[in-house]
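Hi R.,

Here's the input for the zinc ion complex you asked about:
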Amino acid sequence: MEVSALIHNYDIIGTPGGFLVGSGIDSEYVEVQKNDSGYICECFISRIDSEGRCEHIEAVESVSLGCNGNSPASIDQATADFYLGQIGSIDNSIEQNRNSANIQINQIQDWLESVIEKDERKKSYYEASLDAWMRSSGLKTKSLAHGVMKLRQQQPEIVIQDELLLLNDKRFVRIVPEKEVIDKSALRKHVITTGEEVAGISVNLRDDKFSYTVTSQMENKSNDVR
Ligand SMILES: [Zn+2]
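And here is the predicted structure with zinc ion in place:
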């Protein structure tokens, strides 16, 4: 069948709940979910097919023939350890790619800075000349074909040099009132210990959070999942 010949072009990522299927051509991933009667794909073809079938479902079915269809895949400790190792080497690969990209990003950044600096120096030459021209001509504003120039009086800048001395001059002192803010840790502690439903909050119970630490690299990397 044609479909099975194409399967090598699919990247199929499975979880107990379903699969992510990427086609090698456009690298777009679509989700194929498992239900009691079979598989459901979110793609367009699957939605218009009378039996709800598509290439993604066929690809998933062809790889899951060996596994027992409906029960979530359960793994043993050795596999779990292998998976952690896989994550470690994927992290390595990401790190290498990142470093390789950063080298080029830095080179491009250096190039950009050098050309900008050159242009800015040219610009400042013209600016200084125009500034001087406006002053010497006694102009406050001047409209020309390429733009408008203005010479505006500025407010004097006031620099506080001795704050303590200035604080003694009560004309320039104001009292900042204490602000009321939520004490979040006190709230959390109270809610958890008493279970009281405090007005103004909602409490959402959350599932245990999965996280892991991979030991394959020089430095340990921790990851919170979800
Ligand atoms: Zn599909």
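One thing worth noting: The mean pLDDT is 83.

Cheers,
M.
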